[in-house]
Amino acid sequence: MSHVMFVSLICFSGFSQANQFNYGPGESQLGNSVMMVSNTRSIPCDVDKDSSRATVITCYTRPMPADNYVVQVSVDGTMIPQSNMCNGNYNSYYCSFYVSLKAAHTLLEQLVPEFSFLGSLITIRGMIFTDVYGSNTALSSNGLNVRILRYVKLTSDRTHSNFRSLPYLSTYFISALDKLAMFQSYAEIYSIFPSAGSLEGGTILTINGNYFDQTNSPARILVGGQDCPLLSLSNNVIICTVPAQPVTNRTLFGGRGLQLEVWNNTVPHTLDDVLAYDTSMPGYYTMWVDSSSYAWPANYNNFVARLSGFFTPTVTDDYRFYIRGDDRCALYFSQTGLPKDKVKIAYLTSARINESINTPFILSVYFLRYYIEILFQQYSSNAFVDLAIYQKNTSFTALQTPDAISEVQVINTQSIVLIEKQEICFVNWTSETPVKEVQQIVVNSSCFSLGYCAYLQYTLIYNNEKTAPISVDASSDVIQNALNAFDSIKPDSVVVTKTESASGSVYIVTFDSTRGDFNVLQYDTGGSNISISISEITQGKPGLDTFTLMWDGVTSSPLSANATAGQVNDELWGLLSAKCPSSINGYTEGPQVKYFRDYETAAEMVRNQRGTRVFNTEAFCGSYSLMTPQILFDSNDVTSSGLPYGNVSLLTYDTVSFFMFSLRVTSHIQRAVDHQARSRVR
After folding, report:
1. 597 and 477 belong to one structural domain
2. Whole-structure pTM value
3. Alpha-carbon distance 422 to 569, whole Å?
4. What residues contact residue 471 under an 8 Å CB cut-off, 6+ apart?
5. Has residue 149 been placed in a domain?
6. Do 262 and 376 belong together in one domain?
7. Which of these, 150, 358, 378, 482, is most buried using a 10 Å CB contact count?
8. Is the pLDDT of residue 128 over 70?
9. Is the dihedral of CA 544, 547, 552, 556 positive or negative?
């Protein structure tokens, strides 16, 4: 989400000017209003009335997601037609507004150096967006003091949560503390005292420096590769007790970095010859470098170099080493930490600027010191050597830092399809005398004492089928017809009788069926002030002349005990098929129904404006729906008799139902009707 406010200038003619400052009740529509509209959202652009004229509107954009927006302008409550915008090309570049994250923040592109001690000078390269170019302007156009003047003082905790810079992903790396960072600092050591002490240890060592702290982990001091127990620590001084001299005299470097040794004007026969070079060789000089990547100045040729030091992993893991250089280089590694135990694990015999050689994974243990040595030879052209170390496991992804590689896994599966077989067995199946199921519905409401209950309604439910809303004082025929419309009761039926009381009605529902026990009816009052109770008066008993199948709550029609395999097969397919209740699908064109289509059967779609009959979209009911039609009905369509339908009289046909259309219908409907009454659409 962008949090930077931009000024947009909209040039046109005919904008409101005289009415811009008409404030007050009933006048809010006067003046100019601007909306930024994309394919998925619309966001107001706040008009600056002082800066707007009859030909120019100035508005301030709000925080907006990155997207392409079309500018829509309303003048005195009337929207400017699209045909009057950019010569009819309203979504052209000149009438659009593009929001990008790159244009919404200060862009941080590079920070140099990435590693240094606190207080050192760093260089930050990027882009800053502001319309203030000097100190003669108090505020920028968004009302904020945004300017480029001298420097910004950084705090030690964090900058303000708003208006932060947007860094390029390349500025992030994984620090030695296994955290995302742009800059890694370290302490400085100025001196130690004393410089000599007892071989048996016990000397109190004072280390003077700067930026000593234990924010991320306890401080650890090593002398001769062994821990020097900490006595005290401040920002500038560390005091510890020196341990005894170790038994083995190991090669140990003190602080961070690598030792770089160079022999100028030297051309060895093989690169391995450099292993025997020492400080007495001609052209020798040495220095310390802070990185395992190093490049020499241009035209610095005909020399060999050696970088040596220790790799100390902060996490126990498998590590792979990559090396490249121009012209040739080799990498040695010692798992014991002793230089004498080093072995060559990678090498390049010729210049490969964009190619590196890597080693197998090497298990390295947390905080152990592994000696590494890089040999390098330069003939001519560019001179550089790079050593990179790849850690196998990390919690970071490539979306967080280019140092991470997102793992890609391929999952292959296979299965054996087995056709399920079920067997229905009737054992000792004999017919019995059936008993009809009888249930009682008691409906009470205070409206009965008032003598008017038509405004209160409820629904009855059986096996997830619901009736249409039923009036609380409905007749027995209304209840009976509603229940007989349920597919889960068909082909059986119910008979309903009604008796009235002072506070309500009592309905007796008799299931005219030999199926036996039926589930008790359920109800839904929708929060109305109605009291309903339903109970089973007589539990039905089956005659066992038929049976029904049930699959996932859907029941079949009754089947004879000696039904054929074909009859059972048809009922099973019926359980899986989509069905529509007769209240939706049971219509025939005639005096009450002008036009009816359910699209369950294929029909000729006149022209491509009638949409597409689809099976892969869930329909309201049934199996098919109509996708993206432009025309649903036309007065010139012909009936089954061959005559045109003609216009629709709303006095006779006052209801238009769209149950069977896909929710993806978005185009408008073209109708020819007699405007004799207001239609009712559901």
Report:
1. no
2. 0.50
3. 12
4. 453, 454, 456, 457, 478
5. no
6. yes
7. 378
8. no
9. negative
